[in-house]
Design brief:
This protein is an alpha/beta fold and about 400 residues long. The protein is about 45% helix and about 15% strand. It contains 14 helices and 15 strands. The strands form four sheets. A six-stranded mixed beta sheet has the order 3-2-1-4-6-5, with helices on both faces. Strands 7-8-11-10-9 form a five-stranded antiparallel beta sheet. It has a two-stranded antiparallel sheet with strand order 12-13. The chain is elongated and about 70 Å long.
Length: about 400
């Protein structure tokens, strides 16, 4: 049996940079450990690297209370952590559970509990055991939901979880089989969550389909590579849109209250369509608009706004609670839409009208929508797909 500290170990090599005190600014690290093979590898690898002088490491396990035995499993993680000399906290998702959207709600609660625990202990980083297989499933789910490039970029290796707190995934490039083998070779016990294979949930159904998909060449490695390429291209398009908006945007009506924006329509009309979509998406976010669906944004920009600008014709459209208008001179204005009365059903704000937000279908967004952590505040940018990691 190999020792935990063998040089050249892929698991230790992947984790070591995340525990570097220089990279973490001296702040502690909180490990999110459920007891499965991926997070168990995270726990034992962190313990093995402790002697190399990393920052202070603590462990937390979230008990969602969704099935019998979950508390006992969480307590088992606590015993293992303490045996390794690492402090452990058991975090409980209390209160009533929703009848629908259970896994989304559980994910939101999990990250909120982890963020609160990190704040309590002064950690600046939360690490999870997400693997290449998780990334592939995320990309496949977003592809099925009709996502744009940002959604197909999948989970990021690191992102902001809360103010002053990052979420990191050191094993995102490693196949799950590598972590399972790593645990088994070292006699590390782990549990398997039966919900992961439950066909009630999308990920469970996808896992049943993997053998067929892989025979056709749609492997986790190729989907993970797609995520890397999508992230690279999305970053370039997003940068171009940010630069364009900085050049052409200026305060508009309502700017004194933090809303309202004017754009140079002539400059907007000569940009590539993909950049215009992102430019208007960013403008809506900066103006304080509600989250919006990709297909609604595409319809407004590609079918209405750009043709009108190129013909120098005025238009008025509503999206995400905002009125987007262009005059015959080519000036584009974004301002909060006034309340309006729905047809035969009483008053409703434009921001809440289902026909504007497309609430009846799986959401496909086009920006930095949070797909694996707490929900972002109102006005978030959208270009991915809001579907949870189980």
């Amino acid at each position: 049996m190999r020792r935990l500290s063998d040089p050249g170990d892929p698991v230790l090599g992947a984790l070591r940079p995340w525990l570097d005190p220089a990279a973490r600014g001296g702040r502690g690290v909180l490990l999110a450990v459920s007891g499965g093979p991926d997070s168990s590898a995270l726990l034992y690898a962190a313990a093995a690297l402790r002697d190399a002088g990393p920052v202070a490491v603590q462990v937390a396990t979230v008990d969602h209370g969704l099935r019998p035995g979950s508390k006992a499993e969480a307590e088992g993680v606590g015993r293992a952590a303490r045996d390794l000399g690492l402090p452990h906290a058991l975090l409980t998702w209390a209160g009533a559970k929703p009848g629908t959207g259970l896994q989304d709600a559980a994910r939101t609660a999990r990250y909120a509990l982890l963020a609160a625990q990190a704040a309590t202990i002064g950690a600046g980083l939360v690490l999870t055991g997400h693997t290449q297989d998780d990334q592939a499933e995320t990309v496949l789910m977003r592809l099925a939901a009709g996502s744009g490039l940002a959604g197909l970029a999948g989970m990021r290796a690191e992102r902001t979880l809360a103010a002053g707190l990052s979420l990191g995934r050191p094993f995102l490039h490693l196949p799950k089989a590598t972590l399972v083998a790593w645990c088994e070779e070292r006699g590390i016990a782990y549990v398997r969550d039966p919900a992961n294979g439950n066909p009630r949930f999308a990920r469970g159904r996808l896992r049943e389909a993997w053998p067929v998909l892989e025979r056709e060449g749609l492997t986790p490695a190729r989907l993970a590579r797609l995520a890397e390429r999508a992230a690279r291209d999305e970053a370039a398009l997003r940068s171009a849109a940010e630069q364009a908006l900085d050049r052409m945007g200026r305060p508009g009506p309502g700017a004194g209250t933090g809303t309202g924006l004017r754009l140079d329509g002539a400059a907007l009309a000569v940009l590539p369509d993909a950049v215009v979509l992102r430019c208007l998406d960013l403008a809506l976010t900066r103006a304080g608009a509600a989250p919006r669906r990709l297909e609604r944004l595409e319809a407004l920009v590609l079918e209405s706004l750009l043709p009108a600008l190129r013909r120098r014709e005025p238009i008025r459209r509503t999206l995400a609670g905002f009125l987007v208008s262009a005059d015959s001179g080519g000036a584009v204005s974004l301002a909060p839409a006034p309340p309006r009365r729905s047809r035969g059903a009483g008053a409703a704000l434009a921001a809440g009208a289902p026909e504007l937000l497309g609430k009846g279908e799986p959401p496909a967004y086009i920006g930095d929508v949070c797909t694996d952590g707490p929900e972002q505040p109102r006005g978030m940018s959208v270009l991915g797909v809001a579907r949870a990691k189980d």
